[in-house]
Amino acid sequence: MKGCRYLGLAVALALLLAGCEPQQSLFPLFTDKDAFFDKQLLGEWQIWEGTSPRPGEKSALITFRAAVSANTYDLTVPNFDKPGQTLFSEARLVKLGNYIFIDLGTPNTYDSPNIPYPALECHVFGRLTLGKDNGRLDFLSDDWVKDKLRAGQLSLAYEEPLGIVLTASSPDLRKFALEHAEDHDAFSESFTLVRKN
């Protein structure tokens, strides 16, 4: 499998992130039919780990730019555990029911020395709540997935090559995301956004 080339890089990235990482999935949450683009997301945003901004505490910056591919953002994300290091991703939005989700996928990095996020050719996803000048990202927690797996309660297909990677199909992921959209334990890897002035 093509993604296997990236396992070493995925492990290195996981160590860089010190285990504080959204759950990885082999397949995307979006489909080409329903991915959509919201211009309001474009630009630079201050970002803090957690569910609210912390005025007075220095924030990092996350940048959304329109990508060449339709309904896709080029995203730069700070590595919170390695100040000054930037991770790169492709992002797409998908609306499921009354909720907006974001799917981050590995960008094409064959000609780039930059570290992609996620490093394994895969996806991470979470809920997006977006206001005019603020927002919040709540990603599916890898710790929650591990706990559900240990308890025999994980309803999604997975593999454990070097950690848990969800292998559920996109339709199964979408059903799961919609069923758990209000589950703050499942979607507990939270980040707060405030538009940079």
Strand % is 35-45%
Q: What is the H/E string?
A: HEEEEEEEEEEHEEHE
Characterize the main sheet: 8 strands, antiparallel, barrel
Helix amount, in percent? 10-25%
Low-confidence stretches: 1-20
Rough shape? globular
Which structural class do you get from the secondary structure elements? alpha+beta
Give me the Rg, rounded.
Answer: 16 Å
Whole-number total of structural domains: 1
Number of helices: 3
Give the spatial strand order of the biggest sheet: 3-4-5-6-7-9-10-13
Account of the 3D structure:
The chain is of the alpha+beta class and 197 residues long. It has helices spanning 7-16, 142-150, 170-179; strands at 24-25, 35-36, 43-49, 60-66, 73-78, 86-96, 99-105, 115-116, 123-130, 134-139, 158-159, 165-166, 189-195. A hairpin with a 5-residue loop joins strand 11 and strand 12 (165-166).
Based on the model shown, name its key terms.
197 residues; 3-stranded mixed β-sheet; 35% strand; disordered N terminus
Question: Would you summarize the structure shown here?
Answer:
This protein has 197 residues and is an alpha+beta fold. It is built from three helices and 13 strands. It is 15% helix and 35% strand.
Topology:
Layout: H1 7-16, E1 24-25, E2 35-36, E3 43-49, E4 60-66, E5 73-78, E6 86-96, E7 99-105, E8 115-116, E9 123-130, E10 134-139, H2 142-150, E11 158-159, E12 165-166, H3 170-179, E13 189-195
Parallel strand pairs: 1-12, 6-8
Antiparallel strand pairs: 2-6, 3-4, 3-13, 4-5, 5-6, 6-7, 7-9, 9-10, 10-13, 11-12
